[in-house]
């Protein structure tokens, strides 16, 4: 079994990450990971054979651990007023360091495929860009606290800001009505904040084109999924070639 594979999904709240990570997990399972589903299709044999039977781990940030879920409540609850930007960033990294130590690193060392909804790109975009703390501090904290762990592939979903925010606010209102859980804190920000986040995400994609695949525009769910399938298949093929060299 090769060393595990680390894939992250990024984008504004409401960009469709949660929907797409579920579809990607189901697609991978159907191609022989997690020890279930049929054998890989012939045209994808070189990409999937090395991962046949590999277990999938799906997680998110903030959250994904008992400690992280408590941090998530604090960070996303709209009643958490007055958080200084540096405090907010520190909490994001506390959550991330716990997730790496408890979930992500053990899974990768066991040869598993990890799908993570958000990682350090989110902190660079939201706190570095949106809160205007800059990229340098974020990247240095990532090096110090996260061992500079990098995803093998990042899928960056950037539909229009307006569409993303409308979906996020509608979703959060529905969740709050159903469960009483308030995760509306970031959605209360002004449009200028989200434009800075969007710009920073695009800057990251331009800086790291080998890792980040940008999927932009107000596409249908199926269209986004197909682009994700293409990107993941290419990543798996690169991994297979590297393992054989």
Describe the structure in your own words.
This protein has 245 residues and is α/β, with parallel strands linked by helices. The protein has one domain (5-244): Rossmann fold, CATH 3.40.50.300. The chain contains nine helices and five strands, in the order βααβααβααβααβα. It has helices spanning 17-30, 45-48, 66-76, 85-109, 120-130, 135-146, 161-179, 191-207, 221-244; strands at 5-11, 56-60, 113-117, 153-158, 212-216. A five-stranded parallel sheet has the order 2-3-1-4-5, sandwiched between helices. α5 (120-130) packs antiparallel against α6 (135-146). The protein starts with a strand and ends with a helix.
Q: Output the structural class.
A: alpha/beta
This entry's quaternary arrangement is single chain
**What would you call the shape?**
globular
Q: What's the CATH architecture?
A: 3-Layer(aba) Sandwich
Strand content: 5-15%
Measured between the Cα atoms of the first and last residue, the distance is 15 Å
Please give the share of residues in helix: 55-70%
Helical segment count: 9
Number of strands: 5
Q: What is the C-level CATH assignment?
A: Alpha Beta
């Amino acid at each position: 079994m090769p060393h595990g594979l680390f894939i992250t999904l990024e984008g504004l709240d409401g960009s469709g990450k949660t929907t797409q990570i579920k579809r990607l997990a189901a697609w991978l399972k159907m191609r022989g990971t997690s020890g279930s589903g049929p054998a890989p299709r012939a045209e994808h044999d070189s990409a999937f054979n090395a991962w046949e039977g590999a277990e999938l781990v799906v997680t998110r940030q903030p959250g994904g651990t008992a400690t992280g879920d408590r941090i998530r409540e604090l960070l996303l609850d709209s009643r958490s007023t007055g958080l200084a930007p540096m405090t907010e960033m520190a909490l994001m990294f506390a959550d991330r360091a716990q997730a790496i130590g408890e979930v992500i690193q053990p899974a990768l060392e066991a040869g598993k495929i990890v799908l993570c909804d958000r990682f350090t790109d989110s902190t660079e975009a939201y706190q570095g860009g949106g809160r205007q703390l800059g990229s340098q501090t974020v990247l240095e904290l990532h090096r110090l606290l996260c061992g500079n762990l990098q995803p093998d592939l990042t899928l960056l979903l950037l539909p229009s800001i307006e569409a993303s925010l409308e979906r996020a606010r509608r979703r959060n209102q529905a969740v709050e009505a159903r469960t009483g859980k308030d995760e509306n804190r970031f959605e209360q920000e002004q449009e200028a904040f989200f434009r800075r986040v969007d710009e920073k995400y695009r800057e990251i994609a331009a800086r790291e084109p080998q890792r980040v695949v940008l999927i932009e525009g107000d596409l249908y769910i199926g269209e986004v999924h197909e682009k994700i399938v293409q990107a993941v298949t290419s990543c798996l093929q690169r991994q297979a070639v590297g393992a054989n060299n």
